[in-house]
Amino acid sequence: MADTQAGYRRSTGTPRGNARRDELLELVTDDLAANGLADFSLRRAARAAGTTHKVLLYHFDGAEDVLAQAVRQLRQRRIDKAALTAIAERPTLAERVAEIWPILIGAESAVLSQAMGLAMQDPVRYADLGREATGQYIPVLKSLCPTEWSDERKTGVSQMILATMRGFLMHRRVTGDEEGPETGLAALVRAIEREEAAGE
């Protein structure tokens, strides 16, 4: 993966500059979703965005920054899709978690798993790819919890859901076993049902 350092000043945050940056990031994210992290570089990102690496260096801090921003954007797409589906379709947290699973194993799964692997493999450079994932997921999971729960309880249950589903996703990705995670998900849903039945 290229480690090009920024040689140009970044956008100063003007509305026009921000709009252009967002446009470029959307195109790079589309490429990342389609082609994964392998051989990612600033030049590949520039080709995907229909521009030059110099233009990207004006808006971003280099290849690692572009990658991190694109991973974050891809993850947010997944989160938005999952949250909308869960809230719209089901009334309880257990049912909402069950609705989320098919989205989590969807098109973005492979790339986001690669990003987590990169964070574990090279934490000095890419630890934020893992830390930011938790920061993105937990608030959404808390929003799916019963409104009468305390913030502490929402946080604890959300942490449990996130950690458990991450385990299922990793197992599925590494082993190719689809039945095991489905069985585990059913057990997780039952555990959440018991938590909800326990009341405040």
TrEMBL record:
Ranges of residues in domain HTH tetR-type: 18-78
Tagged with keyword Zinc: no
Database matches in InterPro entries: Homeodomain-like_sf, HTH_TetR
GO molecular function: DNA binding
Keywords for the protein's UniProt record, in alphabetical order: DNA-binding
DNA-binding region: 41-60
Region (Disordered): 1-21
Protein name per Swiss-Prot or TrEMBL: HTH tetR-type domain-containing protein
